[in-house]
Design goal:
Radius of gyration of chain B: 20 Å
Radius of gyration of chain A: 31 Å
Largest sheet of chain B: none
Number of strands of chain A: 16
CATH superfamily of the largest domain in chain A: von Willebrand factor, type A domain
Strand content of chain A: 25-35%
Helix content of chain B: over 70%
Helix content of chain A: 25-40%
Number of domains of chain B: 2
Strand content of chain B: under 5%
Largest interface: A-B, 47 and 54 residues
Oligomer: heterodimer
CATH class of the largest domain in chain A: Alpha Beta
Chain lengths: 383, 197
């Protein structure tokens, strides 16, 4: 609409120039006419009525949102329900608009699938109003209560095959805070920490060092499982991959947590890490991080180098969840450090182009050759 | 496209009105002695060429050309013209000044100029509305902008019918005109500058 404004102002300037250069006063009245159109008001008021919102619980669930907007004014109203990045519209139009002859009621009825996790406001609506002469534009955000917490879907995992073997390392876990019963195998003498049982105090060593020291024993418990999810931004950062990766992580985390394993999580993109721990609370902590996970700029190798020391301290079984385009340098870094690591390649976007399909097939073969498990869909979890 | 055709119709209509006004002048009579009589109608080719070449139909240049044609009979209203004739007369060329004055007999064509200006404003709208509507369609809105030309026609008709009443408003001093001129000119320049940014 800027062209329109420019043309009208130019018309006014031309008449002014004629009027001033020839000194014909009457022409000034004509110069005012194009500018008069700018004085027409673009004020309007809009209100939301009759809201119907069917909230989703998980990513992929159906969302239904229906509402009416009453607009008062003279001009053109454009009503836009912002769905981009939060839902895939399958039915209906998130946009409505038209001429408003002083009053008009618009209805927006949209049905789709939730595609974003977290606390999402599905009712973000904007009203853009143009005056009748299309010269001025006013915008108003409408307040609507259509907020829902969309969680990562946790699928039921029946069996994880590769875990059915004895751990090779004699140090399954050295965490001292919340692990199982200490065994009889002596590990080391360390400084007393409030909460340590009195029976573990090594009196001889305490007397020698003049400081309270306790014996520490190897703990009896299951091995920790550390999930590393590749959320580093790359040229093929696909939403489909991220959702699948997070669902796989959540499902496996639930599986291992329920079986008494300590679980930990690292998101390579943001570099966020949740330290190993047991129980439901740990699962909820992980779910919170997974729900808010997005692609970020940190490279997966750099993120891995940063967290490697911490992972090595716990010596867990690492599950590296990544995409087909990954160069696997992060896995090489983990394996070099002597960590047991399993790579799970999660399905991403389905390509329609034949060349892309061939490239994908080649990459899949390369990943299989390097010992990764390539998942074709989210339901069949194999490790 | 539909608005562009409307713009073409308006442009041709404006051209015919302007040329018909110009044909009543002495200048046209003198021109027709040396040039073919249809020459002023060549102006009408501009919108047609613009239409076929996918360029502006009712362009600013075309509007200026039409304004010049209409202002010729009104030139005696100009203080500048009056000053020039007086200057020639005072220099002792009374015959020349009388001849010049005779070449431009006064004929009030202000209403015609008003009509052409209003048609040009309508043309500006028609010229831009195709683009605005296609942009709306691309954004996902399917509504029409037809109420705009209707409202525009209403407003411009109301002003056109009342233009005499508006012009009869006299301030008694040219100072007011000067203030209005400076204000309108400044507003236009500021608006253009801001749009350029």
């Amino acid at each position: 609409m800027r062209n329109l404004e420019r043309d009208l102002i130019m018309a006014s300037i031309v008449i002014v120039v004629f009027s001033v250069s020839l000194i014909i006063e009457r022409l000034m009245a004509l110069a005012v006419v194009p500018l008069l159109l700018f004085l027409f008001p673009s004020r309007f008021s809009a209100g939301v009525r009759d809201i119907h919102f069917s909230a989703p619980a998980y990513v992929g669930d159906e969302v239904i949102i229906r509402f009416a907007v009453n607009v008062v004014g003279l001009g053109y109203a454009k009503i836009v329900l912002k769905t981009e990045g939060i839902m895939d519209v399958s039915d209906g139009n998130p946009k409505a608009g038209g001429f408003v002859p002083f009053f008009r009621k618009f209805t927006v009825n949209v049905r789709g699938k939730a595609i974003k996790r977290g606390k999402i406001n599905f009712g973000q609506t904007e009203v853009i109003f143009n005056d009748i002469f299309l010269l001025k534009e006013s915008t108003k955000e409408l307040e609507m209560d259509a907020t829902a917490e969309v969680k990562v879907r946790v699928k039921k995992v029946r069996k994880v095959r590769a875990r059915r073997k004895k751990v090779r390392e004699s140090y399954p876990d050295i965490d001292i805070s919340k692990i199982g019963v200490p065994g009889t195998d002596f590990r080391e003498i360390r400084a007393y920490i409030p909460g340590d049982p009195v029976k573990f105090i090594n009196w001889k060593a305490t007397a020698k060092r003049n400081d309270i020291l306790v014996n520490e024993f190897e703990v009896e418990g299951k091995r920790a499982v550390w999930f590393v999810v590749n959320t580093s931004s790359h040229s093929f950062s696909e939403r489909e991959y991220l959702e699948n990766a997070l669902t796989v992580t959540a499902s496996l985390a639930y599986y291992f947590t329920k079986r008494g394993h300590k679980t930990a999580l690292t998101l390579t993109g943001s570099g966020k890490t949740i330290h190993p721990d047991l129980g439901k609370k740990q699962f909820y902590r992980m779910m919170f991080e997974l729900t808010n996970a997005e692609f970020s700029g940190k490279d997966s190798l750099i993120a891995m180098r940063e967290v490697k020391k911490l992972i090595m301290y716990h010596m867990p079984f690492v599950v590296y969840i990544t995409h087909i385009h990954d160069d696997m340098n992060a896995v090489v870094e983990l394996i070099k450090s002597g960590l047991k690591c399993k790579t799970v390649v999660v399905a991403g976007k389905e390509y329609e182009n034949d060349l892309a399909k061939i490239a994908r097939e080649l990459m899949t073969r390369e990943k299989l050759r390097r010992g990764a498990d390539v998942m074709k869909d989210v339901i069949r979890v194999r490790m | 496209m539909k608005y562009r055709i409307a713009s073409l119709v308006i442009a041709i209509l404006s051209g015919i009105i302007a040329v018909e006004t110009f044909r009543q002048t002495v200048i046209y009579g003198m021109m027709s002695l040396v040039l073919p009589q249809w020459i002023p109608y060549a102006v009408l080719a501009a919108p047609l060429i613009g239409f076929m070449a996918e360029k502006r139909v009712f362009s600013l240049g075309y509007y200026i050309a039409l304004t010049v044609l209409i202002l010729i009979p009104l030139i005696q209203d100009s203080e500048v013209f009056e000053g020039m004739v007086d200057a020639i007369y005072s220099l002792g060329y009374g015959e020349i000044s009388r001849t010049i004055l005779g070449m431009f007999p006064y004929h009030d064509t202000f209403l015609t100029l008003t009509l052409i200006t209003f048609l040009y404003i309508a043309g500006i709208y028609f010229e831009n509305m195709d683009g605005i509507e296609s942009r709306l369609k691309a954004e996902g809105f399917g509504f029409t902008l037809l109420p705009t030309p209707i409202f525009l026609a209403l407003v411009l008709s109301a002003i056109y019918l009342k233009i005499d009443a508006i012009l009869s408003f006299k301030t008694g001093s040219d100072f007011i005109y000067a203030i209005v001129t400076i204000t309108v000119f400044s507003f236009s320049v500021i608006a253009l500058w801001r749009m350029g940014r």
